[in-house]
Amino acid sequence: MTKLTIACVQTNSKPDPTDNIAEVGAMIREAKARGADLITTPEVVGMLAANREEALATARREDSHEVLAAFRDLAVELGSWLLIGSISIKLSDDKLSNRSFLIGPDGRIVARYSKIHMFDVQVGDGASYRESTTYQPGEEAVLADTPWGTMGLTICYDIRFPYLYRDLAQAGAKLIFSPAAFTKVTGEAHWHVLQRARAIENGCFIVSPAQTGTHAGGRQTYGHSVIVAPWGEVLADGGTEPGVILAEVDLAAVDTARGKVPSLTHDRDYSRPTSQTQALRAAGD
Description:
The chain is 30% helix and 28% strand. The chain is an alpha/beta fold and 285 residues long. Helix 1 (17-33) packs parallel to helix 3. The protein has a single domain (3-282), classed as Nitrilase/N-carbamoyl-D-aminoacid amidohydrolase. It has 8 helices and 16 strands. The mean pLDDT is 95. The strands form 4 sheets. The chain has a 6-stranded mixed beta sheet. A 6-stranded mixed beta sheet has the order 8-9-10-11-14-15, covered by helices on one side. A two-stranded antiparallel ribbon has the order 6-7.
């Protein structure tokens, strides 16, 4: 079984998890009604807080998280595979984990992944982002076995670190999730290029449900949820409005793409670069 219909839910998350459970839940139901076998949601789908203090006050531990519980129940109700792109999991009084969950149709947590790369940047939109102030980075890459094949989990800023995707692909991933809350500025500049590049260089599907619009505190996200094929074709694009996109994918296309360009088997170890001057000195010239 290699064929499935994948949905990306594109939403505009609010600070109150109750609001997001209702709005996203309705879109998940819509995706199921339209034939989705696997439904994906964006990063911070349960809460996009206006500031650090609000995020710390609202987040919950995994075993008592209302968003996780609600979406696990919904997966059972619909009999669907569901990716919770990420929710904020409370680790301590001053640290959270930005954590993704792949849920099976029986409500079981098949895989969990904590975002490794922290978004500590100043992109030129007048805002400074310091994710590491509030969130503790994860330390492990994660694969999940599904009825259709092996899938890899990443989150948002991870897309800029190709070695993570390479490791996942070489470990067997035929599809990699990249749920996101990309800023409008970086999205307009880099979003589609990064998604297609990770798909092409690894010969795999990239599935990236995204946040969109203006959020509490004035933060703007780019939208354009995408499903990208191993040869780089964009199979579906969510534009800038909240909604649901779907695409039928066949994971057999991964073997076809990797057969044409088997670059995953061509990686080599090599020495770190040195300047020409250093090289000449080492040679005694």
